[in-house]
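Reopening this ticket.

The earlier resolution said the output was attached, but the attachment link was broken on my side. Pasting everything inline this time so it's all in one place.
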Amino acid sequence: MNEFMEFFNNSSSDTVSTSVKLLLLLTVLSLAPSILILMTSFTRIIIVLSFVRTSLATQQMPPNQVLVGLALFLTFFIMSPTFSQVNEQALTPLFNNEINLEEAYEKAAIPFREFMSKHTRQKDLELFLSYTHAERPATIQDIPLTVLVPAYALSELKTAFQIGFMIFIPFLVIDMVVASILMSMGMMMLPPVMISLPFKILLFVLVDGWYLVVKSLLQSFG
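Inline output:
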């Protein structure tokens, strides 16, 4: 009887341990996409594309699915050199049992650190370093990811809003011109947005706006 109870307790302990590990694994997997998005070019791209749609005042055109899909493929295109390095330096040796999981994590973080450090402002990086009271890192690889990732995300937000501001200006000018013309004609009850929308779409098409926006995004990561 005592042997049975001891076996039952050991089995229960193993079951609980496995359940906890499985729960932690599912939690990490659910957070992985969000973490990966913040470590790539996706944040800047999707914000700029959203600014384009807002400045055009086309409501849900293009739809969210189209914008997110375009942002994802542009992200894969921009991040392809980084992903290739991760595959060569970390994933392939891991699958070939040449390195363990911890070594693969350290090797995979190197290309991401190099990419994020190129587009992170010194001011944002110093903000998080000063908050953690950490010593100034000697090299890029010495910067903890817990510091580099939020600093990079903050820098991306500022860059994206700067690009979005430049996109807004020409469309704002069109809105102001149309509103002034309508007021001078005494048509105060007619919404200026209704009249300016076709002109904004026409201008965007004539200058090949989507090409210019995507080109600007690619050059910003050059």
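Reporter confirms the inline version is readable. The radius of gyration is 25 Å. Residues 145-184 form the longest helix (40 residues).
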